[in-house]
Amino acid sequence: MISVQTEDFDIAEHYQALLNSPRAGAIVFFVGTVRDLNQKEPVTELFLEHYPEMTEQVLNSLVAEAVNRWALIDTRIIHRVGYLNVNEQIVFVGVSAPHRKDAFAAAEYIMDQLKTKAPFWKKETRLGQSHWLEQRASDEEAAARW
Questions:
Q1: pTM of the model
Q2: How far apart are CA 115 and CA 14, in angstroms?
Q3: What is the distance between the alpha carbons of residues 54 and 39, in angstroms, rounded to a whole number?
Q4: 68-97 per-position pLDDT tens digit
């Protein structure tokens, strides 16, 4: 399941969906939120924009790659777009697998790749001014290790 949406999401609902298979011995998920500080300045708002057709294609490709690499039962990616406030949820990446090693690796892989390959653009409001954020070198390094 992949969804790019403006609405918030319910973590428990997506956890329950991943738990749905009796073969699931491990469920791993990551939830990203809007933090209140970046570059030592207070953040008041985040705006996420995306290219819809390309975004869904990239996310589907990431899931397909993960399914080919690890023994997975189910995957879920929910990514929000639009205006978000501090502490709001941005992204949910979840996987279920028969074993924990596959679940941990696949969830981390999907998140690392999503940060660098998916066409999302972030604009942060700090001290009353908006700034488009550039890709972090640390995100590129994390994605490259796979």
A1: 0.92
A2: 21
A3: 30
A4: 999 999 999 999 999 999 999 999 999 999
